[in-house]
Amino acid sequence: MMARASQTEIAVLGGLSIQPMTGYALREAIRDVLGHFWSESYGQIYPTLANLEQQGFVRRQDAARARASTFAITPAGIRHLEELLAQPVQATPPRNGLLLRLYFGRHLGPAACRTLVQATLTEAQEALERYARIRSEIDGQDSEDRDYWLLTVSAGEHSARAAREWAHEALSILAELDDTAETRRGRTS
């Protein structure tokens, strides 16, 4: 299993394989470009850059200013990135706050659960719009990476469509549960 640090190294080295960047620019690129499937904090990026520099996988192009230095990947860094990419993907334990709440939804009631699911439906629709914009931006680029980038967008689109479909189904079920609860309340009044 690949450690979290190795995953961060992949993100950092991968970003620098596209172009040299400062730590700040790297964080912004990860957020803006990889953000639909990966995130890294400044607290992860700067120590990783320092470690990769010590190992000879990146080099500073301007060593005079530590935080403003531009980092570039070295040939050894490219080889290390390729080794990391070839390792099996690290599975992460599921943590879904929405499903945790729905599992114990009897305590919330159908109306509150519907509000949670409706928010998920809205997020899925917004994600699909965001993916359409990302796809459009990538389609306009002439890069050897273009088709690979589009694979990640496609995965996001599929996930968002599945979330949207599930939310519609869940809203129907919750409406039935609400109707059943109303009927019960009507009989006991």
TrEMBL record:
Signal peptide: none
Transcription regulator PadR N-terminal domain boundaries: 12-83
SUPFAM superfamilies, per the entry: Winged helix' DNA-binding domain (SSF46785)
Keywords in alphabetical order: DNA-binding
Any one GO molecular function term: DNA binding
Source superkingdom: Bacteria
Domain Transcription regulator PadR C-terminal: 95-174
Protein name, as recorded: DNA-binding PadR family transcriptional regulator
